[in-house]
Amino acid sequence: MTVDTARLERSIAQVRLPDVTRGILAAAGYVPHGRLDRAEIAAFVGTGGGKGTRSVAWYDEDTTTLGAEAARLVRRARPDASPSALYFSTISPAYVDKTNATGVAAALRLDSDVLAVDFGGAQRSAVGALLAALSSSSTVLTVAADARSGLAGSGDEAAGGDAGSALLVGDDATGPLLATFLGSASITEEFTDRWRSPGDVRSKLWEERFGETAYVPLGERAWREALKKAEIEAGEVDRVILTGLHSRAVRVLGTKLGLKDKLADDLSSRLGNAGSAQPGLLLAAALEAAAPGEVVALVVLADGADVLLFRAGEAASQPPVRSVADQLGGGTTVPYGKFLSWRGGLAIEPPRRPEPSRMSASAALRNEDWKYAFAGRRDPVSGDPQLPPLPSGGEAVPMSDVAGTIATFTVDRLAYSPSPPIVFAIVDFDGGGRYPVEITDVPEKDIAADVKVGTRVEMTFRRLSSADGIHNYFWKARPLRGVASNVDTA
User: Element (H or E) spanning 101, and its range?
Assistant: First the structure.
């Protein structure tokens, strides 16, 4: 039988899928409200510290809630792009054995058929998750978070930071890209520079010159190969993000590559280094500042070297939901003693009230939509949201992104809390619905100024308590700082 080749090729062309371009659909970083002045460390411990500040997760935040907050910003930026998978990376997980990504997925109210998995255990996991998402053919949400610390007075304690980051990866068939993926190169090498055994609270380091000697050649090689794969010259790169936990190697590599004038701010003087979250957070910050068409390079030194190249797309001209720069511009000072107590490094006397018992896993499963996603139900008669939802309620009403106003509040100095006092408030939500919630992100000294009748608040995913190794997650409210009250309190 004779095959008509030309006809066959035309038939294949008719059914061939259109070419698509992969890249980043949305990016966001979450910087918690706490700030630690590094100068306080030496005054307290007698060693360590330094200049500037580092970000501090509030006492009710952990890596699961930090990641969820960053992911919420991405979902708000692109509600039209639903992920088919969620990859969560952290080197300080709230759980081992149990998947942490499922808690993030529940807070986002993702469908149950969305794959949620952890990429954990090492700093490189986050960039590995991003590369896996970019090589996929589906829409993937990559989330990373870390709450970094170390022994009192240590370099890791001062240089560390707490943050979350989220990158929504997909193709231009879904919508305009924030950044087009141009290419990458990864170099892997086995050497012992930084390590921590399971259960240890601090990381150990080899001497600095060894890490520099190992990392710099790997970074140079990955840089050359990435440019070659992307078919661009070094001079065409407009912004370079250079990050890693070995600060000396990062600094020397920047000099070796001649990138001094193109290096993006690593935010170390205000944020610190947030480990797994740092690459995504710095990439989000760079894309917030980039103009369409600019080429942005992400260089990560961690157990090797990874270089990813992106070109800012048309979506880069749109303002972010909440920029990294705006979050860094705010913040509340956390005293060093308070920081230590929140991290378990300083035992303080708790309120003399019974500590919370562990939550019920079966009850949490039955009420997952309410507990993790703060979704009420529509009242069949009035149409207002029911908070909490009643069994007789109508359709689900997601309330986690709905702002509200404090109608009344009380300051409780007797109830148990890891950081007393507790502020409880009755919140009236925009569009209907009222619920009593705990107010967070307000230190005791600022309660009178930040919490008033008429204060505008937004919801935030937090950890209420932990008992028997089980974390009880739910929602609290925090002041919408800089937003005027819409309630007449005269």
Answer: helix 101-108
